[in-house]
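PT: before anyone asks, these are the final sequences, not the draft ones from last week. 341 residues across everything. Please model them as a single complex and drop the result in this thread when it's through.
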Amino acid sequence: MNKDQLARIAQAMVAPGKGILAADESSATIKKRFEAIGVESTPETRRDYRELLFRASGAMQRHISGVILYDETIRQLAADGTPLVKLIEQTGAIPGIKVDTGAKPLPGFPGETITEGLDGLGARLKEYYSLGARFAKWRAVIDIGDAIPTRAAIDANAQALARYAAHCQAADIVPIVEPEVLMDGGHALQRCYEVSEAVLRAVFAELHAMRVLLEGIVLKPNMVVPGMKAPKQATPDEVAAASVRLFKNCVPVAVPGIAFLSGGQSDVTATANLDAIARSGPLPWAVTFSYGRALQAAPQKAWSGKPGNVGAAQAAFSHRARMNGLAALGEWSETLEKAAA
Ligand code: 13P
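LR: through. Structure below.
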């Protein structure tokens, strides 16, 4: 394990004003996203779409520290034959790879899942390193319902995350540790706080047990938010106050950075909430974004599969990357958002 390299990469992933582009949708997920814009999902359309993002070089250079790829994408070539990984590296961003194989039903626990992908992980990480990946991602999924999550599901997922993280570091790959508490239900913000707290405590206990180097990870959590169907939604200041309190209580200062997922928040809400969190400083870790939907919904819509729309799609992506880069510094405002729109 090269501890210095791990720490250096982890810090670069959360560099000031930069965040992570989560472009690691599985083939099933990207198919759903493409259906929404009337595009057939083929290896070529997936390549064309992702290539246009990576070729938005100004935004990539200024605001994107790393890109999470899916297995297909890390092996793909751009239309002119350049590996997509090269395009990313040329912008100064770091290529990363999703290595879990998905959240599967947890036997005996209706409504709960366990994320799979540990078998053979060591060998897969070696290959991904040779393909250029310097960080990886594993997403554990915790849903909130009447009788869930259970202790058993939290512990099983926390242990899998920690075993994944240890494998990554043995391969000199920085693990993004992503325990996502979903915002699908009608629960209040306080319930999200309590569940997220139980999850983070379990995750850090397991990371410690598995001897994971905290300086060489990036945490990718949900923000503390009410469920999407909750009657009372929260303001950015309320989200920030609860989130900062939670992370100060649960995340050791050795962790270099927290890169939030967007989890179904609208583009601008995800930006406004990150901005409010960054303004609550000084904080002991860097805070930034690792957004999938909140960075890509706008460019996907603008592109809609038409070559003539590539410029508009790149402009839409660049705008969201810039707004989130500002938010990570606590320098975003609605005025800036509107001025650029
Ligand atoms: P969202 O920002 O769309 O939640 O995606 C981030 C991600 O990588 C989920 O695993």
